[in-house]
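Review form for a predicted model. The reviewer records the input and the model, then writes brief findings.
Reviewer: anonymous (R2)
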Amino acid sequence: MKTQALEYYMHDEPDAFRFELSGSLSGDGARSVFQAWRTALSILGRRPMIVDISFVDEADQRGSALLRFWHRQGTRIVATSAASYTLAAAAGAAIPAPAEDTSAASASAQKTALKSLLLRACAAWNAACLSRTRKFQNANYKGV
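Model under review:
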């Protein structure tokens, strides 16, 4: 199985500077993201640094060392998938375990709430239309 090359995105936000990593944190990719991280430090100011590794599926020795280094430097490491959590935990990052997958239950609850909202909106629209129709009929057909 061929490993996916590391891709990363930098988000310069008002309240934090965030890196979002995807693929394999290894070799030249790890070196490249480390250099980008060092460059970002120059504009960081007092904002926290966050590295999201939720889409990282593996790391070699260099990548694991980088995660440990970031953690020691105070960088917040976010890992929401099982694979990324394992990598972060191995690096000593004290992060909560990923929540169990409740996306289906959450989607179902959202769908039910949306249906309910839609039904109430349709009922209100129908009531308004019926009221207008009655007013129109009363105004135009009084003598018929």
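Findings: The first strand starts at residue 7 and ends at 12.
Further findings: Residues 7 and 120 are 45 Å apart (CA to CA).
Recommendation: see findings above.
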